[in-house]
Specification:
single chain, 125 residues, mainly alpha, 70% helix
């Protein structure tokens, strides 16, 4: 996918998230969106934001998030938010459908926010 399309999709994900947060202020009871939209958008927004920040470092300009990075991030979000956090904070509950949401977000990242690697030096951090 071209850089321009990647930026457009990234901006769209961020705008959807921000629009949802504004709508949520006046309509706090949108159960499906409240339960899953943030989880779907979390992985793409976090990974692309991290990639863009890392690429600000002059020696890391060609950095690209790899498949293993996507997998590890998705597993870490799943373990933290669905296993550990509900055990230590009663405000959070386990919802195994969130795992599907995180995986969906990972797929969205892979298909819409990855750029072709022309340098072949996409080493992890």
């Amino acid at each position: 996918m071209s850089l321009t399309k990647t930026i457009v999709f990234y901006a769209a994900f961020v705008v959807v998230f921000l629009a949802y947060k504004v709508i949520e202020l006046s309509h706090p009871n949108l159960p499906f969106f409240h339960s899953y939209l943030e989880d779907v958008l979390a992985i793409p927004i976090v990974l692309k934001s991290a990639e863009l920040i890392i690429r600000l470092i002059p020696s890391k300009r060609s950095f690209r998030v790899r498949r293993i990075d996507i997998l590890v991030t998705t597993l870490m979000f799943s373990a933290y938010f669905e296993m550990w956090l509900p055990d230590v904070d009663s405000r959070f509950t386990q919802d195994w459908f969130d795992l599907i949401a995180y995986a969906s977000g990972a797929l969205l990242f892979w298909f819409f926010l990855t750029e072709p690697n022309t340098n072949h030096s996409s080493a992890s951090i």
